[in-house]
Amino acid sequence: MKKLVLVFGILVLLVSCTQIRQIVAIKDLKIKFLNVNVKNITLKGVDLDLNFRARNPNQVNAVLAGFVVDIFANNVKVGKAALNKTLKVPASGTAIFTIPLHLDWDKLSQSLSSAIKRKSVLFKATGYAMIDTPVGKLKFKVANYTRNIK
Questions:
Q1: Per-residue pLDDT at 14 exceeds 60
Q2: Model pLDDT for residues 70-81, shown as the tens digit of each residue
Q3: Are the C-beta atoms of residues 47 and 40 closer than 8 Å to each other?
Q4: For the chain: N or C, fewer Cβ within 10 A?
Q5: Structure letter (DSSP) for residue 44
Q6: Domain extent at residue 45
Q7: Domain tally for the chain?
Q8: Ramachandran region of residue 91, left (φ > 0), alpha (ψ -120 to 50) or beta?
Q9: Residues 78, 104: contact at Cβ < 8 Å?
């Protein structure tokens, strides 16, 4: 019985160490926006694909259980992009991934009227990645982008 408890304790420690290394790897990920592709334009809005490259400088794989980015224009949330599948970024490697984004014309028109009044557009993108752990999904902030266009 003592051997079983010892083996179980060692397994828990090994899983915990792996999870900690993956968490550190996710925090160190360098995620860069590459480009956008228009998929569909309808009367309700526009569907886009946002393409990103993730670079992992660590010696351990970074495994994301999801990725979410909120897009704002003049403080109006105009869209939310979400990757709802697992993404593995290999140790000392890169991975290209695509996140679909739907922009609603109603929200875009609200931000456009604000842009006309202000004569500028303040774009913001905030995002977080998720990692699976034995105690559930943990979120880590990975994107905080702001740009003012006049």
A1: no
A2: 888 888 888 888
A3: yes
A4: N
A5: S
A6: 2-149
A7: 1
A8: beta
A9: yes
